[in-house]
Amino acid sequence: MAREARPQAMKDIARALARNGPEHDLRPLKSRKYADVPAATWWRWVKTVRDSGAPARKAAKRVKKHVAQRAKQADPAASITEAVAEQLPAVVKPEDVACTGVISAMDRIKECMDDANRVKEFCRTESGKIRNPKLYLVASRHILDSMKTAATISRQLMDAQRLEQFHRAILDEISELEPEMAERVLDRLDRLNLEWGAAV
Fold first, then answer.
1. What is the pTM of this model?
2. Which of 7, 1, 13, 4 has the alpha carbon at shortest distance from 38?
3. Cross-strand bridge partners of residue 124
4. How buried is residue 112: exposed, middle or buried, by Cβ count under 10 Å (0-12/13-18/19+)?
């Protein structure tokens, strides 16, 4: 069985390594397609393919093909930048998860704080004494919670802005690279997305 499977297995190993990099985990491929092949035989085949340099040649050929295809486009640099941008993790902003939007959410927080301040004022007598301590403390806690929520939203906005700046810096650097190097970066990002399940 192993001898019959060898030619196709070698092709599959080379394809997987060319597509996913030399350190790609080949155990899933073995268990999915070559479960009957003894482990020692399998890893000998893997070593043979890795040592042959075939995956690296295949990967280089694929990159050159992509470079040639991209060179035919109207703006190759913009094309590679757009392709890289698609591979970067999406910047999730508070308005993406809050249906009310950031401005509306901040307005609501301000309303909550204003209401709580009115409750606190209601709890005071004209002389300044607190006539309802329990309600006064509830209103004070509400103001504190509202301030924490506002700080969280503000921090998320700053984080999103920093991530956008980081993405922009990456894209600016890649746009300065030689086409083949830029294509290699894109290829690597694509492999990372497959490995980490971070495809966007």
1. 0.41
2. 1
3. 130
4. middle
